[in-house]
Input
Amino acid sequence: MTDDEFRRELGKSKVVAVIRSGTWEDAVKLGTRAASGLGLTLIEVSWTNPDASRALRELSDAVSVLGAGTILTPEQAESALEAGAQFIVAPNFSEAVGRVARDRRVPYVPGVYTANEVAAACSLGFNVLKLFPAATGSPSHLRSLREPFPDVQWVPTGGVTWDSAEAWLRAGAIAVGMGTSLFNVTDASRRIASLRNLNV
Output
């Protein structure tokens, strides 16, 4: 998947399902539920799962765009890509992980929070960035970062809830990453459709 294709998919989906679980079986169940039950096309399996690589392999046929998250080292990045990840996500920016993504021609979404971190990622050509942790910031924090960095596409993640998702998108996020909160309502599909229909 190219960077342009990935950005288009983010723009259409508006929500990335972030799957954190204690077992690969639970990761597969949640990923399948997000894809087939909620109609989400972008699923990220956290590498904190003790057998994330198996979860990725098991989900590969059920998920349109499958990624690996919490990728901290080049070795983890290589393992995730070998297991079928089509994009990689991290809570931080790592030049070494970025080089793996660039060499393998897959999107890399590093986590940033400050202007210095944004500038470092942008200087190496990465401009789809994860604002992390979103819970300790606010949509106004995102608006402030957008002013000096107008070409960045933002994916706030880490504490995004159904109560805050719309505000993040209205502040300029291309999509939001949602974890456990994604599954804690009975009308998630309707809420996702509402986010996709926002006129922002």
User: Anything to note?
Assistant: The radius of gyration is 15 Å.
